[in-house]
């Protein structure tokens, strides 16, 4: 289980990013973080693995308080936390297989990673993961030859190569089209279910969060203002999270996007006739 207690973050400018965030994520639960830009969603995810240093509070994974660890111990504990990034964070000149194997860097000696001579077990695991995310036929392709959805699949496989106990996912669909976004979210949720893997997903798309998340936490100005199942994410709750003006604008944007998708489909059908 992951447990956050009183996590706060104040930047050197004095601006607060998080204020007294307390929550627990049990094994196997997929939690979606929603909220307006600047609400603290990405900061919260990064405080968990200390890519951002919390100003106060504790972050406990199992029985280890990650906030209290020194650099060497933190490096070892980070192996337990897989991270999937919005911008994929792949090494584009390397192959898909090499990018997936980079998830094993915390486990192998430096000389093996430098020479790209990973143990046979790691290579076999990487092939299994590529098969699971649907990229077995692209193992030898360079990362810069892939589409956005394929790159995100590589990022998922790389995170899983760590054999993590927790998955942190930061805006996994922000750069993807609606169809690919649903495919990626379905893949993430299926894999978490298969492995009993807890996950925290920072997601900007509310309907997508309602469709795929088991639990929703809404942040506003660095504070939790909603915590519950998607079924309880009423219009009043969304207004509390986003504000009336922001939520109305978001609904209008969703409607415009849906209409654009429908119009594109009609055009394709007309061309096919």
From TrEMBL:
<dbReference type="InterPro" id="IPR017871">
    <property type="entry name" value="ABC_transporter-like_CS"/>
</dbReference>
<dbReference type="GO" id="GO:0015416">
    <property type="term" value="F:ABC-type phosphonate transporter activity"/>
</dbReference>
<dbReference type="InterPro" id="IPR003439">
    <property type="entry name" value="ABC_transporter-like_ATP-bd"/>
</dbReference>
<dbReference type="GO" id="GO:0005524">
    <property type="term" value="F:ATP binding"/>
</dbReference>
<protein>
    <submittedName>
        <fullName>Phosphonate ABC transporter ATP-binding protein</fullName>
    </submittedName>
</protein>
<dbReference type="GO" id="GO:0016020">
    <property type="term" value="C:membrane"/>
</dbReference>
<keyword id="KW-1003">Cell membrane</keyword>
<dbReference type="InterPro" id="IPR050086">
    <property type="entry name" value="MetN_ABC_transporter-like"/>
</dbReference>
<keyword id="KW-0813">Transport</keyword>
<keyword id="KW-0067">ATP-binding</keyword>
<feature type="domain" description="ABC transporter">
    <location>
        <begin position="2"/>
        <end position="246"/>
    </location>
</feature>
<dbReference type="Pfam" id="PF00005">
    <property type="entry name" value="ABC_tran"/>
</dbReference>
<dbReference type="GO" id="GO:0016887">
    <property type="term" value="F:ATP hydrolysis activity"/>
</dbReference>
<keyword id="KW-0472">Membrane</keyword>
<dbReference type="InterPro" id="IPR003593">
    <property type="entry name" value="AAA+_ATPase"/>
</dbReference>
<keyword id="KW-1278">Translocase</keyword>
<keyword id="KW-0547">Nucleotide-binding</keyword>
<dbReference type="InterPro" id="IPR012693">
    <property type="entry name" value="ABC_transpr_PhnC"/>
</dbReference>
<keyword id="KW-0997">Cell inner membrane</keyword>
<feature type="region of interest" description="Disordered">
    <location>
        <begin position="252"/>
        <end position="273"/>
    </location>
</feature>
<feature type="compositionally biased region" description="Basic and acidic residues">
    <location>
        <begin position="262"/>
        <end position="273"/>
    </location>
</feature>
<dbReference type="InterPro" id="IPR027417">
    <property type="entry name" value="P-loop_NTPase"/>
</dbReference>
């Amino acid at each position: 289980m992951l447990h956050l207690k009183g996590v706060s973050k104040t930047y050197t400018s004095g601006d607060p990013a998080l204020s007294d965030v307390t929550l627990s994520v049990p094994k196997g639960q997929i939690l979606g973080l929603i909220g307006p830009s600047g609400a603290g969603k990405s900061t919260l995810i990064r405080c968990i693995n200390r890519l951002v240093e919390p100003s106060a509070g504790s972050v406990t994974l199992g029985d280890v308080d990650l906030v209290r660890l020194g650099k060497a111990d933190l490096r070892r504990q980070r192996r337990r936390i897989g991270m999937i990034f919005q911008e994929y964070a792949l090494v584009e000149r390397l192959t898909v297989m090499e990018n997936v194997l980079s998830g094993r860097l915390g486990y192998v000696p430096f000389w093996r990673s430098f020479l790209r001579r990973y143990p046979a077990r790691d290579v076999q695991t990487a092939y299994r993961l590529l098969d699971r995310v649907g990229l077995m036929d692209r193992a030898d392709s360079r990362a810069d030859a892939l589409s956005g959805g394929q790159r995100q699949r590589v990022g998922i496989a790389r995170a899983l190569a760590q054999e993590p106990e927790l998955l942190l996912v930061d805006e996994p669909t922000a750069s993807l089209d609606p169809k690919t976004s649903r495919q990626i979210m379905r893949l993430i949720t299926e894999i978490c279910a298969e492995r009993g893997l807890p996950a925290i997903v920072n997601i900007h798309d509310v309907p997508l969060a309602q469709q795929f998340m088991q639990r929703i936490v809404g942040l506003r100005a660095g504070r939790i203002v909603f915590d519950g199942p998607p079924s309880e994410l009423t219009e009043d709750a969304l207004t509390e999270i986003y504000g009336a003006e922001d939520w109305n604008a978001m609904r209008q944007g969703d409607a415009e996007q849906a209409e654009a998708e429908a119009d594109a489909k009609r055009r394709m059908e007309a061309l096919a006739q």
